[in-house]
Structure formats: C-alpha cells, structure tokens
Design a protein that fits this description.
alpha/beta, UDP-galactose 4-epimerase, domain 1, 18% strand, seven-stranded parallel sheet, binds uridine-5'-diphosphate-4-deoxy-4-fluoro-alpha-D-galactose, 10 helices, Rossmann fold, 14 strands
C-alpha cells in the first residue's frame, strides 16, 4: 500500500509517517520544508515539493502512483490567519485543490484530510459532535471548511473518497521515535509553557482571563499526537476497506483551561516560572471540547493517552531538544 504524505516533515505528519512506515506501508513524504524539518523524516522517502506548483505535484502523483494520500500540509495558526488571511483563504485552499486534482488525474481515489475543530467557531454547546453547525470565526477555520466542501463535491461526483479528520488541540511528543513539536515561532500553549519551564522564555502569557469558563481562561481538548497518528491509520483502513466518505472529530472529550495546563506543567517539571495576564488573542473561541463517539463508531478509534501523558512527553522531548530539531 503506497501512501503519499503531504506535510510529512511537520509535527503531526512526521509522527504519522513514521507510524505508517513501521506498520508496513510504503510512504512518500512531500513537503516544501517552509515549516517542517527534514530531520524529522529520518530515512523515509522524501521529495521537496511545493503544493502551489501543480505541474510538480501532478508529476509526483504520476510517478509514485499512490493508493491513498494524507494531506497535512497547511498553515495552521489561528492568530496568524487573522493577520494574514490570504495565506489561508488563498494559499491553503489553492494548494489543496492542486493536490486533489493531481490525485484524481493520476488515478488515486482516497484521501485523508487534516481538518480542524476551528471549523466550528464558537460552538453552541460542548461536547461538539460532527452535526454541530459549522461557522468558523477565523480564516484558518474557513480554509479548512472550504477544503472539506471541495472534498464533498469531489466525492459526490464520484472522483474520490475522503475522511476529513477535525483535530482538536494536537499536543505531546512521540518519545519512542524522538519526534516532537518544533515551530518557529512557537505559539501553541503546551510547548510555550514547557519552554518557559526550561527557561527559554522569561514568562508565560495567558491570553484572556474573563472568558465564560470556570477560571476565566480558554478551555481546549488536548489530544496526543500518537493518538492522532493511530486515527490516520484507522481512516486509511476505512477508505480502503469500506470506501465512502466521512468527517470525524479527533479529541479526548475532556477540556483543560490555560491555567490548568500551566499548573500541570509546573507539577510535571517541578519548575516554577512567572505568568502574566494579557489581552485576549483575536479569533479564540472560549471552549472547544470534542465528542469523539463517531470516530469510535466509524473507524474504531479511541484515544489512549490523557493530559498527563501529553504534558509529560512534551516536557521530556523539549528537555532533550530545548532548541528543537536544530539543537
Ligand atoms: N494561549 C495562551 N498563551 C500562550 C499560547 C496560547 O494563553 O502563550 C491560549 C490561547 O489563547 C488558546 C489556548 O491557549 O486559548 C490554546 O492555544 P493554542 O495556540 O495552543 O491552540 P489553538 O486552540 O489556538 O489552536 C489549535 C491549533 C489549531 C486548531 C485548534 C483546534 O493550532 O490548528 O487548536 O482546537 F484549529
């Protein structure tokens, strides 16, 4: 089974690519390395490809002839999408369409798509299931929703089948394979707090303290990157065994506030650090918690790792790599 993995040098992509290779899949990573790390791809097959370049994308699909693709490559920061919407509404969408088209033209009919809880915007209630209204409040969420709609049209036209995975907050590290989260700049909560404990940042900033939540800070559903990797294998099996298309939430079903994460990092690391209270970050919904029962029902996926394993593995990986892959 041949699987083309776009964005396979990125955080979730690299962990998933390694898991697929270890499970016996033939894997080809394509990544333009604008955000990913060549070091994270190890000895897996790799081509430096920009998905904006449709000719090259089509050539790679034609040469490799994948049975399925997993499409991770995208810009994925809520805050950045508010200040640079064109990279999301233009860049993410155009690159995805190039890929979808090239796959179909080269006979590949199966795709797993990296979507996001950001499509839900501010949910009416939690936990959020897949029937909840989709009304993104930032261009990042909109770009994922547009791609899902494109996939829906490709699917209903009989061109391909897809599983769209709506990730909640990916976090943690794959310690066994020495793979972790390394963004430049780092904006995500868990790595920022862990790096503050390691003395890489002078303090942790809490963005907003008067949200309608228990302690006034935003609540998120953190899901271990190894659990996400397992979901992609289950999604591939679904596509190849059953056909059809579906959309699934991937989360733990538990919510933790920013303050709770900070306390847990202090506990796991045994290090104290200073914390400042700042203005809200534009585009942040107060609470995102997944209902993950559809994923269990449709692809037999259930997360195995909780918030302690997430924080502990992040602490361990960043302690070993305080400067990320370049260190
Ligand atoms: N936060 C802080 N201080 C920081 C960093 C973050 O208070 O230094 C807060 C944010 O304001 C937010 C929460 O911590 O309330 C989580 O922020 P992250 O940046 O870690 O993650 P997001 O929830 O913004 O976004 C992530 C992914 C998106 C995905 C979303 C889905 O980056 O791709 O989860 O839930 F869409």
């Amino acid at each position: 089974m041949k699987v083309l993995i776009t964005g396979g040098a990125g955080y979730i992509g690299s962990v998933t690519a390694r898991r697929l290779a270890d499970s016996g899949y033939d894997v080809l990573i394509v990544d333009n390395l604008s955000l990913g790390h060549r070091e994270s791809t190890g000895t897996l097959k790799f081509e430096c490809v920009d998905l904006d370049d449709r000719k090259t994308v089509s050539r790679v699909c034609g040469d490799y002839k994948p049975d399925a693709a997993i499409h991770f490559a995208a810009r994925s920061l809520v805050g950045e999408s508010m200040t640079d919407p064109l990279s999301y509404l233009g860049g993410n969408v155009a690159a995805s369409l190039n890929l979808f088209r090239s796959l179909v033209e080269n006979g590949c009919r199966n795709i797993v798509f990296s979507s996001s809880a950001a499509v839900y915007g501010i949910p009416g209630s939690v936990p959020i299931d897949e029937n909840a209204p989709v009304r993104p409040i930032n261009p990042y969420g909109s770009s994922k929703w547009i791609c899902e709609q494109l996939l829906g049209q490709f699917s209903s036209s009989g061109l391909l089948n897809f599983v769209s995975l709506r990730y909640f907050n990916a976090a943690g590290a794959d310690i066994g394979n020495d793979l972790g989260e390394d963004h430049e700049p780092e904006t995500h909560l868990i790595p920022r707090v862990v790096l503050a404990a390691l003395g890489k940042y002078p303090s942790v900033k809490i963005f907003g303290t008067d949200y309608p939540t228990g302690d006034g800070t935003c609540v998120r559903d953190y899901i271990h990157v190894n659990d996400l990797a397992g979901a992609h294998i289950a999604a591939l099996d679904y596509l190849l065994e059953r056909g059809g298309s579906t959309i699934l939430n991937l989360g733990n079903g538990d919510g933790f506030s920013v303050r709770e994460i900070i306390s847990l990092v202090k506990e796991v690391s045994g290090v104290s650090f200073s914390v400042s209270e700042e203005d809200k970050r534009p585009g942040d919904p107060p609470v995102l918690i997944a209902s993950n029962s559809r994923a269990e029902f449709e692809i037999g996926w259930k997360p195995q790792l909780g918030i302690r394993e997430i924080v502990r593995s992040a602490w361990e990986w960043h302690s070993m790599h305080p400067d990320g892959y370049s260190g």
